[in-house]
Each structure stands twice: as C-alpha cells, then as structure tokens.
Amino acid sequence: MRWTASGVARSVVVMDQGIVALLSGFGLCLGLILSIGAQNAVVLRQGLRREHVGIVVIVCVVSDAVLQLIGVAGVASLVTAHPWLETIARWAGAAFIVGFALLSARRAWRGGGSLEAAPDAQPEDAQPEPSGSGAQVATRRRSGRLATLATILAVTWLNPHAIVETTVVLGSVAATHGDARWWFLAGGIAASTLWFVGFGYGARFLAPLLRTERAWRILDGGIAIVMLVIAVTLVLG
Q1: Which burial class, exposed, middle or buried, applies to 152 when counting CB atoms under 10 A from its CB (0-12, 13-18, 19+)?
Q2: Do you know which Pfam families this protein is assigned to (predicted)?
Q3: Distance CA 126, CA 121 (A)
Q4: What is the arithmetic mean of pLDDT over 9-14?
Q5: What pLDDT is recorded for position 183?
Q6: Is-above-0.85 flag for pTM?
Q7: Does any domain span residue 130?
Q8: Through-space distance between the first and last CA atoms of the chain, rounded to whole angstroms
Q9: Per-residue DSSP letters for 68-115?
C-alpha cells in the first residue's frame, strides 16, 4: 500500500482531532461526576464499609456508560444531522461549562466543600453482642445486597439533574467534535470507569483526604480550570 503525503497529513489531522476529543470527554465527564454528591456518597459508604463494592461500582460504570452512549448516539447524532444546531450546541455547552466552572471557583474561594458518606442504616439495625465483661456492645449489621443494589440504582437513575448532565450536556458537547465524537465518548467512559473503580475500592484511603475542606478547595479550583479550558476549546472549535 502506497501512502501519499496528503493521506498521511489527513491521518495525522484525524488522529489529532481524536486525541483532543478524547481528552475533552475525559476532563468534562470527570468534572461532572465529581459534582454528583448522592451517588458518590453511596459509593463512599460502601467502600468504607467494604460491603458489596463490586455491585455498586458495576452499576455506576454501566449506568454512566449507557447514559453517555444515549447522549452521543442520540443528542450528538441529532445535532450532527442538522448543522445549524451545532452552533447552538456549541455556545449552550460552553455557557453551561463556564457556569459550572464559576460555581467550582466560588466553592474553591469560599470553601465549605466536603464529601460525607451516606448515612448508615437506622439504629434498629444495630444488634447487641455480649462482651467479655457481660455488657452488651452494639455491632453494625451488614447491609443486604438487594438493598444496596436498590439504593445505588435509585440515586443513579432517579436523579434528573445528573441524567440531563450526562445525556444532554455531554451529547451536545460531543456533537461539536463531529466524527470524533466517538473518541469523546471513549474519553468520558474511561473517566467514569477510572473514577468509580478507584473511588469505590480506594475509598478507605481517600476518605480522610476528601473529608478535609482544604482538599476540596484545591479540587474545586482544579475543576474550574479544566472546565474553563474545555469551554474555550469548545468556542474556538
């Protein structure tokens, strides 16, 4: 097979567009995931308790991948099929991302951010156990697998705000990348997978750090910077 100079140049351009879309999807998706408190709280709780972490992680990863696919295959394809919608999607997406960045910057400036684990079951779940001295010591009963599954499904699929962000916002931004939108999807799925797997199984190591206000101010500041970069890239095309 003979390669011409124009063919090589075209391949390089396509690859560059794919890398930009991949990094954009990764950064935007990761920033949005960090803002969804209820879902992360359940992941944190189960990670700290080391109970049914696999179920929680799988539900989060698969659900997020499905929602992103709906956004890219649905919203992004619709925008791509109607070119006049691309300008609207580009500026609407940029406006949302800038607003998100400003909120993150505000939290970084004012502080007060935190991530607490979702509360455990009610006190009646505590079962008394006799101790060596004859006194009774309350011990926590393990949460059931079905109860955990129902909880993570509820906070994932009954959160309209999160669903809109994952489908409409990500889908609209993905549409601005044209044929490279599938690279954008790959970056988004990679970000959510890395986050949920790392956060679920590393919760016991991350929890002490993420419970400090300083850590969240730094994190929010970083998110604000990443979001602004994505917004500028989106507007400039």
Answers
A1: buried
A2: LysE
A3: 8
A4: 48
A5: 95
A6: no
A7: no
A8: 33
A9: HHHIIIIIIHHHHHSTHHHHHHHHHHHHHHHHHHHHHHHHHHH-----
Domain hosting 61: range is 10-119+136-236
112: left (phi over 0), alpha (psi -120 to 50) or beta: left
Q: Helix 5-35 and helix 84-110: axis angle, to 10°?
A: 50
Q: List beta partners, residue 129.
A: 137
Angle in degrees, 0-180, between the axes of helices 5-35 and 181-201, rounded to the nearest 10: 40
Residues 6+ apart with CB under 8 A from 100: 31, 32, 35, 227
Taking only the tens place, the pLDDT of each residue in 21-47 is: 999 899 989 888 876 567 887 888 788
Please check whether residue 150 is in contact with residue 59, taking contact to mean a CB–CB distance below 8 angstroms. Answer: no
> Is residue 212, in this structure, part of any structural domain at all?
yes
The letter for the amino acid at 139 is T
Single-letter amino acid, residue 68: Q
Check: CB of residue 113 under 8 Å from CB of residue 210.
no
pLDDT at 186: 96
* Count of domains for the chain: 1
105 in a domain, yes or no? Answer: yes
Of 149, 142, 115, 147, which Cα lies nearest the Cα of 38? Answer: 115
Answer yes or no: are the C-beta atoms of 29 and 188 closer than 8 Å: yes
Q: Write down how long the chain is.
A: 237
- The C-alpha angle with vertex 104 and arms to 99 and 105, in degrees rounded to 5, equals 95
The reply to whether 1 falls in a domain is no
